[in-house]
Amino acid sequence: MKGIGRGRVRPRNCGCLQYHTGLTGRLTTFNFLPTNDNHLANQEYSICIRQEAGMCCVEYTVCTDARSYSLEAKADGINMQDSACSKDYVGIEGGSATCNASPGDVLFTQFCGNVFTTDEAAVLNMPICGKLPRIFLQ
């Protein structure tokens, strides 16, 4: 992710299991290890990111680790958003392909599938921008 970072201190009663500060950082699930491609399903937890001075959105990108993103993956390689994500997903409020979304642009909330993107036809991971500094993992 770009525009955010790691922090050890989180505000009380923020509703977040992880809280990040700074301009860069890495979000990982509690069980992610480079040697383990499994994840804990149905965790319903949130990771919060403090909005830094002068920043208006957060840009999320997939790490280069093998299998660092794949949720509710299908054999046909389709990428899904919103209501098509019926099980596990990454939730990014106001998710779009650019951080300068215009009025009328299609915005998404949930992302799942084989590739991290707002484009169902994409075969490569692409950055997703979100306006709100919270990401939900379900």
Shape: globular
Q: Please give the alpha-carbon distance between the first and last residues.
A: 19 Å
- Rg is 14 Å
Q: Structural class of the helix and strand makeup?
A: mainly beta
Provide the number of structural domains: 1
In the sheet with the most strands, the strands line up as 1-2-8-5-6-4
Uncertain regions spanning at least 5 consecutive residues: 1-8
Estimated share of beta-strand residues: 15-25%
Please count the helical segments. Answer: 0
**Main sheet attributes: strand count, strand direction, barrel closure:** 6 strands, mixed
Helix content: under 10%
**Multimer state:** single chain
Would you count the extended β strands for me? 8
* Element-level helix/strand string: EEEEEEEE
Overall average pLDDT: 76
Summarize the helices and strands and which ones pair or pack.
Blueprint: E1 18-20, E2 45-49, E3 58-60, E4 79-81, E5 90-95, E6 108-113, E7 128-130, E8 134-137
Parallel strand pairs: 1-2
Antiparallel strand pairs: 2-8, 3-7, 4-6, 5-6, 5-8
Descriptive report:
- With 138 residues, the protein is mainly β.
- It is built from no helices and 8 strands.
- The protein has one domain (11-131).
- Helices cover 0% and strands 24% of the residues.
- It has a 6-stranded mixed beta sheet with strand order 1-2-8-5-6-4, with no helix packed on it. A two-stranded antiparallel ribbon has the order 3-7.
- 27% of the residues are buried.
- Mean pLDDT is 76; it is low at 1-8.
- This is CUB domain-containing protein.
- Residues 15-129 form the CUB domain.
